[in-house]
Amino acid sequence: MKKAAGFALIKTIPVFLGYIFLGIAFGLLLQKAGLGAGWAFLISLFVYAGSMQFALIGILTERLSFAATAIITLLINSRHAFYGLTFIERFRKMKAAGPYMIFSLTDETYSILCSAKKPDDFTDREWKLSSLFISLFNHCYWVAGSVAGALIGQFLPFGTTGIDFAMTSLFTVIFVEQWQSTKCHIPALMGLAAAAVSLAILGPDNFILPAMLAICVMLVAMRGRLAKEVA
After folding, report:
1. 158, 39 Cβ separation under 8 angstroms
2. What DSSP state is assigned to residue 210?
3. How confident is the model at residue 11 (pLDDT cuts 50, 70, 90)?
4. Residue 44 in contact with residue 26, Cβ under 8 Å?
5. What is the predicted pLDDT for the residue at 201?
6. Banded model confidence at residue 16, pLDDT cuts 50, 70, 90
């Protein structure tokens, strides 16, 4: 267990640096909306949905209906349906931990789970434990950052301008790490191309889902060639 936890801790350091600052930003905004550290803890613990949590601040303060909340949540987090399919069998094999792995599969956790390679001295059980610890540590980072932000906002004036750039930096680091860890760069190039074209046509507010759909179509169409490249 110690070996698996140590491996997960090292892998999640970039996420820690991003989540702490983004969590603080969320906590600060929540505090400014009149909701304290208790709300920050509960929302981050049970919702744990990144951008949806920021949207949830307006939902709570404006008292939107359940139906409106459900639709907004579906639109914001529907991208999870695309990459969550990758881990169906892997999470199923984790048995009791499977439901938590599904719940805690954020963008950053997904990236780490995809890029991490099983060490030669790891047993199958240690490898499964390391995946669980990766998800758990990332969850704890987010909760800790959110609560810290709410507490800071309660006692100290703090500006949030520019703090959301931490997420952009985090994704850049993860992308570079994945690029360096594999020799086949075709999926990454397809992803960049699809995102760029979708962004140019649809704009920053609407490009994510069409880009991910295009990526999925291209990956399925080229799965034979990609399998050969990976082999």
Report:
1. no
2. H
3. very high
4. yes
5. 93
6. very high
Binned at pLDDT 50, 70 and 90, residue 7 comes out as: very high
Helix (H) / strand (E) element for 112: namely helix 107-115
Contact 14, 162 (CB under 8 A): no
Residue whose C-alpha is closest to residue 15's, from 170, 203, 223, 158:
170
User: Residue 106: which of 134, 128, 132, 80 has the closest Cα?
Assistant: 80
Closest CA to 82 of 198, 205, 220: 220
DSSP class of 4: H
pLDDT digits (tens, 9 = 90+) for 195-215: 999 999 998 877 877 887 888
pLDDT given for residue 159 in this prediction: 63
- Kindly state the helix (H) or strand (E) to which residue 21 belongs, with its residue range: helix 13-32
CA–CA distance from 82 to each of 78, 198, 215 (Å)? 8, 17, 10
Give CA–CA dist 200/172, Å, rounded.
20
- Contacts of residue 31, defined as CB under 8 A and 6 or more positions apart, other chains included, come to 37, 40, 149, 150, 152, 153, 154
Rounded to whole angstroms, how far apart are CA atoms 160 and 29?
A: 8
Q: How far apart are CA 68 and CA 74, in angstroms?
A: 10
DSSP 206: T
CA-CA distance, 90 to 102, in Å (whole number)? Answer: 10
Q: Which residue matches tokens 């639109």?
A: 75
